[in-house]
Amino acid sequence: MPLVLRVVSLNCWALPLPWPFRSNDHSLRIKKIGEALLLNEYDIVALEEVWGEHDFLRLQEALKKIFGYSYYFHSGFTGSGICVFSRYPIVSTLMHRFTLNGFAHHIHRGDWFAGKGVGLVEIEIEQYRVNFYAAHLHAEYNPNKDLYLPHRLAQAFELAQFVKHTSYSADALILAGDFNIEPDNLAYQLIVQNANLRDAWIQKPNSCDDCGATFGRLDNCYTPQRFKNKKNYGKRLDYIMYRSGRSKIELKLCEIRMNRIHDQKSINYSDHVGVYAEFSLSEQHDEITKGLSLTPPNLLKKVIETQQEGITRVSRDRFIFLSLVVILIGFILATFFAEQHISGVKTATLILRFLLTLLMGFCLWHGLIGLTLEHKALKASKASVSMLLNE
Which of 253, 283, 313 is the last residue of a domain? Predict the structure, then answer.
């Protein structure tokens, strides 16, 4: 008798920052998310952007009667934001934090401070061992000038490699999360092809009028105005993917969940909507999954080209930042000259010199250390992809 497995994934948009940076209706939405998860017969839940550990503990307390097992992946300065709740025992966990995750000086983005990555929980479901992965990749921000594309490609490759190399002994594997990429994106193809995964939304046997968009939807009260002006129906950024292992996993249903809060009709659970998938697990297995399909060479070549563009940009940025160090030293020396020859400016020059020194220190750190780390990480990613191309 096949075993039914119900999975849901949601980006909660739970920024625990002071006003006005805090996400809208934060406390109410966390409460309602917990209530919604209790009302439905989910077996495994993946949540992203639960940045505050207190929010995880709050959900853990609310869900403990149904979801007796849970895990929060601690990583980075602000945390990974990723957590998993399960009806079934979690027997082991592992996390890989992505090597590249944005830039330190892009404080307004915040990705660099987050410990984004992919978390693995091995779940024991009766006689089956299921590898359940939850992931959150770097945001796109500007599709017309995607400065973070080399980073997101490196993350996609690390994600695919992590899934591929940790799933050999699993009966089945499921990957869920906010990938921040659309299906026509190079990073999406890299994940699907390299890890030999199936996209539940594409494979769904059920008919559905919804286009599958999970962010920027017109029916979401938190959708930015710039998306509503485009007159489109949003982007599909959140996914559930799967693959058989030693046992057989079949998709029975996939649909959008957790959009509007039922008793708060003007409020959504998040700025994203959830993705739900229902699977059946059985011991009968007539598919060959041990031999993973080769990633198309053209795809790998495009990834290598993009990573090389990133390496070139790093070299250019290093020259700019180190040049700024020299210029700032000149300005700092000029403040001493001004102090000696202009009366009444000592306090002003002292403050200016302090600020210039801080700026120079950051430029020196970023030019010598930050960009060197990025350069080496991009080279490592490019070399690893090149190895697959040479197979």
Answer: 283
**211 and 351 both lie in a single domain:** no
Domain boundary among 248, 283, 318: 283
Copy the structure tokens of residue 144. Answer: 């017309």
The first and second tokens of residue 233, run together, are 């129906």
- Residue 38, domain member (yes or no): yes
Do strands 198-199 and 238-244 pair parallel, antiparallel, or not at all (unpaired)?
antiparallel
Contact 307, 48 (CB under 8 A): no
* pLDDT tens for each residue of 146-162: 888 999 999 999 999 99
Give me the catalytic one of 26, 151, 272, 366.
272
Mean pLDDT of 245-272: 93
User: 165 catalytic, yes or no?
Assistant: no
Its pTM stands at: 0.89
pLDDT tens-digit map of 187-234: 999 999 999 999 999 999 877 767 789 999 988 999 888 777 766 678
CA–CA separation, 319 and 240 (whole Å): 42
24, 270 contact by CB (below 8 A): no
